[in-house]
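Sequence in, structure out. Go.
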Amino acid sequence: MGRFVGTLLAGFAVGTPAIPVGLSLSLPGPVALIAVLLGAACCVVFAVFAMERARARWQSWRGRRKSVAAQAVSVNTANGAAPCDATVGQTPPVHARLSGATGLRAPRVLDRYGVAGFGIVGPALFGTWGSALLGAALGIPRWPLICWLMIGITLWCTVLLVASDAVLAVLR
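Output:
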């Protein structure tokens, strides 16, 4: 039971790479796979919900900040000041900051491959935590993101399990 819990916690902490941890603790392959998948599922759900909450707070703060700035510009314009006086030294608008190649790359990749492509490739490229946080930050809907990430994590854990079993069979 302790080995299963240790593998589950490793699955929560590091995700897919925890398969060799389970195998090194002498768990059978399918049991190690189940433990890592349970840990990774907890990780994905926690990360997606936490990032959605953080994103909602950021958008709320951003909306309040923009409304205060818009009120300041309208007050200055009503008082006879030129509109450009109020905008000197301010950051450029969001659409201007995201118009560069870097700002458009992530949404473009997401549009091209969709949630399914992101969910399958994400755990291999960004890890479990990274793909869950990045997907939620990009605004992918919660349940499709969680489902596709779990499909991708299951795929990569199975690949890693087969590879680890083959390496251990050769070394024994």
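Check: Residues 85-89, 91-98 have pLDDT under 50 and may be disordered. Helices lie at 2-14, 19-24, 29-78, 83-87, 94-97, 101-137, 142-171.
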